[in-house]
Amino acid sequence: MLQVNTSREPNKYGFQPEAVVEAARFVTDKCPALRLTGLMTIGAVEHSVDTRPNPDFLVLKELQSQVCEQLNLPSDALDLSMGMSSDFEHAIEMGSTEVRVGSLIFGSRVYKAVANNDSSGDEKEEQPK
After folding, report:
1. Distance between CA 85 and CA 108 in Å, rounded?
2. pLDDT band with cut points at 50, 70 and 90 for residue 108
3. SS3 63
4. Residue 118 has pLDDT above 60, yes or no
5. Cα separation of 72 and 70, whole Å?
6. What is the pTM of this model?
7. Which of 24, 59, 84, 92 could be joined to 6 by an S-S link, Cβ 3.0–4.6 Å?
8. Cβ distance 42 to 60 under 8 Å?
9. Which long-range contacts (CB under 8 A, 24 or more apart) does 15-20 make?
């Protein structure tokens, strides 16, 4: 899968939306040991609950269409991985074929505080979104 930074947030990784078709073409043409199976995103948190339709899901769905069209693939050739515990139902409504729901199954994560000036090593529970 190609990860896409649909929200263009600087703290997230992935291809910028405008680079996805070319990246997909590169993988399919130049990387014979790889098989492009789909596109994935983790959208902006503020879109996950409050915004319908979710703009990040719309971007990924449009990119799926563009990649399939440009690479002469059937429209259902690429899976979409979008949606997490807080918005997976909406993601499925928008066409997601894979969702990540670990927090619903296992509960919130506990992170060690290692950011910037916090060297205490204290564990902090993830805040619900």
Report:
1. 10
2. confident
3. helix
4. no
5. 6
6. 0.80
7. 59
8. no
9. 17/59, 17/63, 20/63, 20/66, 20/67
Run of H or E residues at 20: helix 20-30
Give the HSE-up count for residue 128: Cα atoms under 13 Å, Cβ half-sphere: 6
The amino acid sitting at 125 is E
Which residue type occupies 51?
Answer: T
**Cα-flanking dihedrals φ and ψ of residue 2, to 5°?**
-100, 130
**18 contacts: CB under 8 Å, gap ≥ 6:** none
Is residue 2 within 8 A of residue 12, CB to CB? The reply is no
Instruction: Please give the mean pLDDT across all residues of the chain.
Output: 86
Question: What is the pLDDT, as a whole number, of residue 117?
Answer: 53
Tokens of 54: 């979710």
pLDDT (average), residues 99-103:
88
Cα gap 39→2, rounded to integer Å: 5
